[in-house]
Design brief:
single chain; 6-stranded mixed β-sheet; 6 helices; globular; disordered N terminus
């Protein structure tokens, strides 16, 4: 995939083209007929003949280039506002995007807003000096409907008469021929219906518009838009960078490599790293097997029907097409526990499974004064401490949705990204995102686990709120310490990376069975560093948030010693429990894992 970036002071366009098309095949038949009876110099009869077939394959090839026609600078002169209290900088910059593609099915161009870091679904003009509270949101200003500043984009086709770029088959889609909100999800902005003979290419021009309210503070605001070419036919939305598309891109992430992927359910992005789970016994420098681990905490807002959460994020319905939902109607796991199916099959072997968390999830619990501390407690409102009913709470600072929390060292907090970056790298600060708190029922996507099948120790739940293709790390699945397959995913990955092995089982692997086995604090600093970046975000229980920045707790998908407990990872300054046991009604953090083939 080729990326073309151009940086400007007001907006930046990212141009990406992807080649996913079919092949065009031309077949040439070379027929050689031998009729020797008519050749005067030769006698005899032709007894055989042959035909040779030659095939030439021409691959579909597409490209995009961008040319900045006018600088993307929109200036609001000091004290100059039309109407006395506002200003309209129209036509902010022009960029021509030229495309060429020999796919006869044509192609489409999609657009999406991206953040300063390059992650998708960010549509605001970012205030680099003033902070997120003063960002300018995308939107088309309509008189009398709002007083907030907005910015928007428009796409038009170029009709310069060039024989190489003909506009005849090009159309502007989804009303982008007028100023339109910058999309938070990949949205088709132009379609080329066919590409034959000389009509291989097209050109579009993008411009931007802004309405600036008179109360908007002075400063520089920057936004980014990414354009992507898709063929054949333009029917597929780009998804090569989504968490859900792990089967397609996951194998290209090697051990120690990190990529950023977008969760298609809400547009949130996550750092994903290939982490070794078993090194070669003969050559310990070689990794025999590895997995993909999320190295940021899950930040999925749960709702009954895709409602908008308090931080403004919209979550689509959770189905087996975008979420780790694998079983329906088997055993005692019936539709009564929150599942529906798109067909009448009682086991839903070919339909789409949907999980509806329940009405209690319409509003998450809130942490009224999110003053992080290693020892003091923080009040929580609206948390239900029932181990059988899903509950969740958003990790936010003092109720301010624009200041997300980052943590690093023991008893140190950062209340904004800019504060974190002042002392750390931007990459580190991204990893230390708090994410949300989930009780175990919410984490395993089940409305009611007060049933026999899910009250038995070592039983692993088949579903979770992880993206499709991912799952919650499994906990201990048996009591035999000689069987490595009984080890939890936390056991395996921490042992392989030198985090455990200083106690417990003689072989060095943590095997708790039905009790906690702890290790010393030798791995304390590494737990929150590369490659794991586990965040010490504490836990919610009842009306209280405990030990924020002091202790890290992460759910597994496996039942522990009773019908109300589950296995989890637990660590703090002096102790590490890869297979701890805790009450399922508590609110813990979530990380997801995806298995991959053995590395080369």
């Amino acid at each position: 995939m080729q990326v073309i970036n151009h940086q400007v002071s007001k907006q930046t366009d990212y141009i990406i083209h992807s080649i996913v098309g079919s092949l065009l095949t031309f077949t040439i038949l070379c027929s050689i007929g031998l009729s020797l009876n008519n050749v005067s110099a030769v006698t005899g009869t032709a007894s055989d003949s042959t035909m040779a077939t030659t095939s030439v394959t021409v691959a579909a090839s597409c490209s995009m280039t961008a040319t900045i026609d006018t600088a993307h600078n929109g200036n609001v002169p000091n004290g100059v506002y039309s109407g006395g209290n506002d200003y309209y900088p129209n036509g902010i910059g022009e960029t021509t995007i030229a495309t060429r593609c020999n796919d006869p099915s044509g192609y489409s161009i999609y657009a999406i807003g991206v953040a300063e870091s390059g992650s998708n679904s960010n549509t605001a003009l970012y205030s680099s000096i003033l902070g997120n509270n003063y960002n300018i949101s995308t939107g088309v200003y309509q008189a009398g409907t709002t007083t907030d500043s907005t910015w928007s984009m428009k796409v038009s086709k170029v009709t310069d008469g060039s024989s190489s770029y003909l506009p005849a088959n090009l159309t502007i889609e989804n009303s982008f021929d007028n100023y339109h909100s910058v999309p938070a999800n990949y949205t088709e902005v132009a379609r080329f219906s066919s590409a034959t003979d000389v009509t291989l290419g097209s050109k579009i021009k993008t411009t931007y518009d802004a309405y600036i309210d008179g109360d908007q503070p002075a400063g520089t605001y920057k936004g980014h838009v990414k354009y992507t070419l898709v063929h054949p036919g333009g029917t597929d939305v780009p998804d090569v960078d989504t968490m859900q598309n792990v089967a397609e891109w996951g194998g290209r992430v090697g051990v120690g490599e990190t990529v950023t992927a977008t969760d298609s359910r809400d547009g949130n992005t996550y750092k994903v790293t290939g982490i070794c789970t078993q090194y070669n016994t003969t050559n310990p420098a070689n990794c025999d097997s590895y997995e993909l681990w999320m190295t940021e905490n899950l930040d999925l807002a749960l709702s009954t029907n895709g409602a908008i959460s308090t931080d403004g994020e919209t979550t689509t319905a959770l189905t087996s097409e975008n979420t780790d939902l694998n079983e329906y109607g088997t055993g005692t796991l019936t539709p009564a526990y929150g599942y529906t199916c798109s067909n009448s099959d009682p086991n839903c072997t070919s339909g789409v499974i949907t999980w509806t968390p329940g009405a209690t999830l319409a509003t998450p619990a809130t942490i009224s004064d999110f003053s992080y501390s290693t020892s003091t407690t923080t009040a929580v409102t609206g948390w239900g401490n029932d181990s059988y009913v899903p509950h969740w709470a958003e990790g936010r600072l003092n109720g301010n949705i624009n200041n997300e929390v980052y943590t690093k060292d023991y008893n140190v907090i950062y209340t904004s990204l800019s504060d974190c970056v002042a002392s750390n790298t931007p990459d580190q600060c991204a990893h230390w995102h708090i994410g949300n708190y989930y009780n175990w029922s919410a984490a395993v996507a089940t409305n009611n686990t007060n049933i026999t099948e899910y009250k038995t120790q070592y039983t692993t739940m088949p579903n979770s709120i992880c993206p499709a293709g991912w799952h919650l790390p499994k906990g201990l699945t048996g009591s035999d310490p000689s069987d490595d397959s009984n080890l939890s995913d936390f056991n395996t990955v921490l042992y392989a990376n030198g985090m455990t092995g200083d106690g417990g089982n003689p072989a060095g692997k943590d095997f708790a069975g039905d009790t906690n086995v702890k290790y010393s604090s030798t791995g304390w600093s590494k737990m929150s560093s590369d490659p794991f970046y586990f965040v010490r975000s504490g836990y919610v229980n009842g009306t209280t948030l405990y030990y924020s920045t002091g202790r890290g707790l992460y759910w597994s998908s496996t039942i522990a010693t009773s019908g109300t407990n589950a296995y989890f990872l637990y660590f703090y300054s002096s102790e590490l429990y890869p297979s701890g046991v805790t009450y399922r009604g508590s609110g813990l953090s979530v990380r997801c894992v995806a298995p991959l083939p053995s590395s080369e």
